[in-house]
């Protein structure tokens, strides 16, 4: 009998959306929806089928779960600030995935994973859209012989920032630093003040005030491609679709520059757009990671620290994104 995937924060937006994606892909995969409020968790579980609801206490190293309960993986769809979820997974040799640490406060998670590197596979997915932007950029990079620059610009609609946990994450990360991490001339460099303030172009040409931010996408893309210039610009405001009177959408500009296979200069600029905002894409990114960690697609994943681009296939990712309504346009 298969053991359930424990989704910490499973009754929140990211957790419940991820559970719904996993249920669609794998109807026979049991899920455990874990949260502080058992009634909310039970409502989500009942709607999914083949799922149970459990209460969660993140202040306890055993998560407040019965000792006899077994799981197949642990997903932290909520901030695991004490790393009790990670420790729980390591003690039991279970794959673990997290999305809320962010680049500026990821060190405890990295150290915990490195100290017990042989205990369990740990997928660090605190990237934008749980790693999807990185994977789309890598798919686009296939057209290049050499990649020199990667410039990402994302617009998050203020009405699509997520639930209370996601808003807490945004506020925490903004409070920790206003500086951005970039790769410039091959060196990772911090930028702050006026240098970090940028205009972020929306898909309809409107430029929103934004910032060059510190996010895991920057080192992931830089180290995966060798590009000497990488930055990620981010703005929170009204998306293009909402300015047209439609629901909030999410949009990301991916600007790549280098040379083609023949050595001739090459530059591509592409927009990623989803009419339902970031929620379905973030859930998709998490679900892809869980599927891979469980060996439901691809070979077994060994213990140690992993990032989305190290485990997931960019072409498959784009295919899955397109299937749920994402559009890609060259500009």
UniProtKB/TrEMBL annotation:
InterPro entries: NAD(P)-bd_dom_sf (IPR036291). It comes from the Bacteria. SUPFAM superfamilies: NAD(P)-binding Rossmann-fold domains (SSF51735). This is Saccharopine dehydrogenase. It comes from Actinomadura luteofluorescens. The lineage of its organism: Bacteria, Bacillati, Actinomycetota, Actinomycetes, Streptosporangiales.
């Amino acid at each position: 009998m298969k053991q359930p995937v424990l989704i910490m924060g499973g009754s929140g937006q990211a957790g419940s959306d991820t559970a719904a994606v996993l249920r669609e892909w794998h109807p026979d995969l049991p899920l455990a929806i874990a949260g502080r409020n058992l009634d909310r968790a039970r409502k989500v579980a009942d709607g999914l089928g083949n799922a149970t609801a459990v209460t969660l206490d993140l202040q306890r190293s055993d998560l407040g779960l019965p000792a006899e309960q077994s799981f197949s993986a642990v997903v932290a769809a909520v901030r695991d600030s004490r790393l009790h979820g990670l420790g729980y997974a390591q003690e039991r040799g279970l794959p673990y995935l997290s999305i809320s640490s962010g680049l500026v406060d990821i060190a405890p998670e990295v150290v915990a994973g490195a100290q017990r590197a042989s205990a369990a596979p740990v997928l660090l997915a605190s990237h934008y859209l749980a790693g999807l932007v990185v994977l789309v950029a890598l798919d686009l990079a296939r057209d290049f012989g050499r990649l020199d620059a990667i410039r990402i610009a994302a617009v998050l609609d203020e009405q699509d920032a997520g639930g209370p946990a996601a808003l807490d994450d945004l506020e925490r990360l903004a409070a920790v630093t206003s500086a951005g991490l970039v790769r410039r001339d091959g060196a990772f460099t911090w930028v702050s003040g006026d240098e970090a303030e940028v205009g972020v172009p929306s898909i309809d040409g409107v430029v929103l005030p934004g910032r060059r931010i510190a996010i895991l996408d920057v080192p992931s893309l830089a180290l995966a491609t060798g590009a000497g210039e990488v930055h990620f610009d981010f703005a929170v405001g009204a998306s293009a679709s909402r300015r047209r009177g439609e629901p909030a959408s999410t949009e990301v500009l991916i600007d790549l520059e280098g040379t083609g296979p023949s050595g001739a200069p090459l530059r591509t600029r592409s927009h990623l757009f989803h009419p339902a905002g970031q929620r379905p894409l973030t859930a998709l990114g998490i679900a892809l990671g869980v599927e891979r960690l469980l060996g439901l697609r691809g070979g077994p994943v060994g213990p140690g620290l992993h990032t989305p681009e190290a485990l997931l296939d960019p072409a498959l990712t784009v295919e899955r994104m397109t299937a749920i309504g994402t559009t890609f346009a060259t500009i």
